[in-house]
Amino acid sequence: MIDGTGSRDARASTARPDEEPTSASVDVPVPASVDTPVPDSVDASAFPSVDDLERRFGDPWDPDNPTGHAAVLAADEAGEMLAAGERLLDDYRLNAEFVPPELGGRLTRLDRLIEVLRVVFRHDPCLGLGYGASSLIPAVNVWAAGDARQRHRMAEVLLTGGRAASGYHELAHGNDVARAEFSALPGDDGRLRLDGRKEVIANAERAEAMVLFARTSAAPGSRSHSQLFVEMADLPDGTPLHLPRFHSAGMRGVQLGGLEFRDCPIPADAVLGAPGLGMETALRSFQITRTALPAMTVGILETGLDVAARFADERVLYGRPLAGMPHIGSILADAFTDLLICDCLATVTARSVHLIPGETSLYASAAKYFVTTLLMDAMDALSRVLGAQFYIRDGRYGIFQKHLRDLAPAGFGHTARVACLSTVLPQLPRLARKGWLDDTQPPAGVFHLGADLPPLPFERLSISSGGRDSLSASLSAALASPELDGELRRLVLVIAAGQDDVRRECAALPPGDLTVAARPEALRPAARYAAVLAATACVNVWLHNQGRQDAFLSDPRWVVAALGRIAERLGRDPGQRPRHITERLSAEVLSRHRDRRGLGLSNRRPPG
Q1: Do 140 and 7 form a contact (C-beta atoms < 8 A)?
Q2: Taking the CB of residue 441, how many other CB atoms lie within 10 A of it?
Q3: CB of 525 within 8 A of CB of 428?
Q4: Which of 85, 108, 321, 327 is 20 to 30 A from 8 in CA distance terms?
Q5: Contacts of 348 (CB under 8 A, 6+ apart)
Q6: Would you state the torsion angle of the CA atoms of residues 481, 482, 485, 489, taken in this order, to the nearest 10 degrees?
Q7: Helix %, strand %, coil % of the chain (to 5)
Q8: Residue 24: its pLDDT value, please?
C-alpha cells in the first residue's frame, strides 16, 4: 500500500496512492463509526455542478488557457504541479467532495465523486491524483473507523483548505504492511511513541493531519497494527524529519517524500477505532478507493482517445484522411469500447457500494484489476494511431505521452493489480460451491444510471462478501429478457459459458492456492471472474437504461462490441465482429470529438 493525499502546490502528491496490503480475507467484527445523524435529505442541487467545473477548466486545446494542454505540459516539464489548476480547485472547494454531508461536505454519493474527479484527471492527472484523489485516502479511513472528534477534526482540516497525508508504505516491505516496522508503542507517560520511517508520502511537508499505519503491539499476529489519526500541531517542534524527494517518470509534478520519527510522543487517543484493527480498517475503507480511483482515471483514456481522434482527423496519409482508414477506425472503436466497459463496471461497482455494501469486497477489487488493465492496454493501442508522435513531449499532440506516462502509476503497477486478485481469490471457492447457486438479484438501482442512492454506508463495509454475489446472478437473469436477441443474445451465452468455466475452476482450487503464496496460474480464475463481472455490468446497464432518451446508449451495437472484447479476455472465441459495428463506434468517437462531447456513458455535451 502506498501513501497518497491531496495537494495544492508543487510539494504535494503521490504517484501510487492506493496499493493495498495483501491479506487473506476473513470474517471479523468491524467497529461502527461514531456518526452525527445524517439529514433526511441533502440538497445536492446547491452543490457546484460538474458542468461548472468543466467551464472553469475551459478548452484544453486553447494554447492561451492557463489550465489547457500547453500549460499542463509546461508544468510537467518543470516537474511541478500546475499552479493555476490548484487555484481553480481551491475556488471550486474540491476538498468538500471528500467530506460527508453531515460534516459539512459534498460526499453524498460515490458516482458523483467519481464524475467530478474524472474531469480533473482528464485535464491533468497530476492534479487529479495529487490535489484530488490522494486527499480522499486518509479521509476515508477516518470516516470508516474514527470517533466523533477525529471525524470532525479531519472534516475541519479539509473544509478549511488544509491537507492530509497517509503513511502506510515502507520500502523495505512493499505491500506486506503486516510486517511494517514503524511503531507506536505506549510510553511511560501513557502516550504513544512514534518510531521509524514512512516513505513515498505526498503532502508530507505541509499536511495538517496524517493517517499512519503502525505497529501498536509487540505481539505477533494480525492484531498487532493500528491506524492512527495524527495532527501535526500535536507533535514536538522539529518532528518529523523530512526525507528527500523521490522522482518519478509518470506523475512528474507529484512530489513524493518521506518522514522519519524518533521517539515522538502522540496522544493515546490517536488510534482509529479499536487497537489492533488497522488491517481490517484498511481493507474496508480501501473498498472505496479501489472503486473510485480507477474510475476517476478513466478520464486519462478519454483524453488519449480525444487526442487520437484529433490526430486521425487532421493527418493525411497517402492522400487520404487517417480517420477514414479501416485499420485506424478499428483501433479507435476498440479503445472506445474498452472505455465504455470500464465506465460500466466502475459505475455499477460504485452504486453497489451504496446498495449492497456487504458484497463490495469482491466487486471493488475485481473492478480495480480489470479497469486499470483495460485502461493501460487501450492507451498502448492508441499510441499506434499517433505513430512517432506518441512519444514527443511537446507540440500539438504532446499531451498524449504525458497521459500515457501518468496512467502507469495511476494503475498502481503490476504487483498491486495482483494484490487485488489475491483479495478476491480466497472468496471464490465458497462462491463456486454455494454463492453462485443462489439466484438472488441485486437491487435494480445498481444498474440505473443517475438513480437516487442512500448515503455511503461506511459502517456496513465488510472485508468478505460472506458467500454472496448477486451481481453474478444477474447475468442469467438478463438472458430471460425479451430485449436480448440476435447477436447480443449469442454473445451473452458465450459469456455465460465462460462463467461456468470460472465456476468449475474456482471449485477446484486447492487451499494452498488461496493465500498470497498462490501459484500464478491460480490467479487466472480470479482475473476471468473480473471479466465476467464486467460483461454482466455492460449488458445490465444497456437493459436498465433503455428509457434515458440516449440513442447511442440504447443501441445494442456498443454492447455487442463490449461483450466480444470481454469474451476474448475470457479465452472464448466471440466470432468476427461485424464491420458495421466497428464503423458505427469509430464514427461515434469522431463525432463526439468534433462536438466536444464526453466519451463515456454520460455522453455529456459541453457547457454553454
Answers
A1: no
A2: 13
A3: yes
A4: 108
A5: 363, 446, 447, 471, 537, 540, 541
A6: 20
A7: 55, 10, 35
A8: 36
pLDDT for 608 equals 58
CA angle 206, 290, 56 (to 5 degrees): 60
Q: What are phi and psi of 74, to 5 degrees?
A: -65, -45
Measured N-to-C along each axis, helices 360-386 and 278-296 cross at an angle, to the nearest 10 degrees, of 30
Q: In terms of Cα–Cα distance, which of 369, 381, 382, 378 is closest to 411?
A: 369
pLDDT at 15 over 50: no
Q: What residues have CB less than 8 Å from 596, skipping those under 6 apart? A: 605, 606
Separation CA 250–CA 246 (nearest Å): 12
Cβ–Cβ under 8 Å, residues 522 and 513: yes
Which pTM does this prediction carry? 0.91
CB burial of residue 343 (10 Å; 0-12, 13-18, 19+): buried
> Which three three-digit cell numbers place residue 446?
445498481
| Res 162 pLDDT > 70 | yes
DSSP secondary structure of 530-567? HHHHHHHHHHHHHHHTTTS--HHHH-THHHHHHHHHHH
Phi, psi values for residue 379, rounded to 5°: -65, -40
Q: Which of 194, 213, 206 is nearest to 145 (CA)?
A: 213
Q: How many residues does the chain have?
A: 608
Beta bridge partners of 198: 259
Phi, psi (rounded to 5 degrees) for 190: 90, -10
Local structure of 481: helix, strand or coil: coil
**Cβ(552)–Cβ(558) under 8 Å?**
yes
Strand 164-167 relative to strand 209-215, pairing: parallel
Q: Give the chain's radius of gyration (CA, Å).
A: 23
Q: What is the pLDDT of residues 235-249, one digit of tens each?
A: 999 999 999 888 888
Could you tell me if 461 and 357 are in contact, meaning their C-beta atoms sit under 8 angstroms apart? Answer: yes
Is residue 413 within 8 A of residue 373, CB to CB? The reply is no
